[in-house]
Amino acid sequence: MLGSIYALIALGYTMVYGVLRLINFAHGDVYMVGAYIGLYAAQYLHLQTGEGVLTPPALLLILLIAMAGAAALGFLIERVAYRPLRRAPRLTALITAIGVSMLLEYGGQIVFTTTPRAYPQLAMAEKSRALVLRGVRIDWVDIIILIVAAVLLITLQIIVHRTRPGKAMRAVSFDREAASLMGINTDTIIALTFIIGSAFAGAAGVLVGMRSQSIEPLMGLMAGIKAFVAAVVGGIGSIPGAALGGLVMGVSEEAVHAVYPQLTDAVVFGILILILVLRPRGLLGGPAMEKV
What we know:
The chain is mainly alpha-helical. It has helices at 2-20, 27-44, 56-82, 90-112, 123-126, 140-162, 164-174, 176-181, 186-212, 219-234, 239-259, 264-278, and strands spanning 53-54, 117-118, 121-122, 130-133, 136-139, 214-215. The chain has twelve helices and six strands. The strands form three sheets. Strands 1-3 form a two-stranded parallel sheet. Strands 2-6 form a two-stranded antiparallel ribbon. It is globular and about 55 Å long. The N and C termini lie far apart (44 Å).
């Protein structure tokens, strides 16, 4: 379950890096904003039952609303913060990404307050029903998270490999200038990349809020860092690599947490160091082509 969440967030990092060679450090905070959009949608549309729980159709609706809101935020960030720096040195764009991240984090504390907010619970979880396999209890919330993550990942693969925008996205990733000469509107494709990646982060925010039943403005800080690590471990720029890296990070984190909770973060970042030393391009990263 945790690996699926990391995979959804990591997709935004890997997609943006694939087309812009930019690490969008504000992406983890888009995940946080998506969680709050889902919460406010549930409240103002009265999607919660009297006991403060969500039915599966209501969950689907707030997922779609949160994805749309996060996608709009991703588009705004790209248009206002990154597009004017398209030809600037990479360090300038990197510093801007950190600035946007801090703006969302501390602006979120002003808008949403620093107090953690209770999140609606899924009706199936509220009734304490669970699937039991050979004595292992699996909550339905976790199963739903796995299903949603799998559907979104498969949908993204279809978009990237079976549609014209996906083909254009791959062309821009390979050579932006050549793609522009072939008639591809690179600005539109880059904006589309931010929109899709942000939408996935928004979905992850809702799913995490529903499972933990609490959200706060800094929830995207560590989750964003770990998702970035997952993208690097899997091979940043590779969509299957982001999914694999997320699963590796999630499973490793939970396994270590069960035995040595105090070493969880150390092991997670230790995996990153190990991958960078032994396989710098990640588990599924391909060889880089250089012009000579």
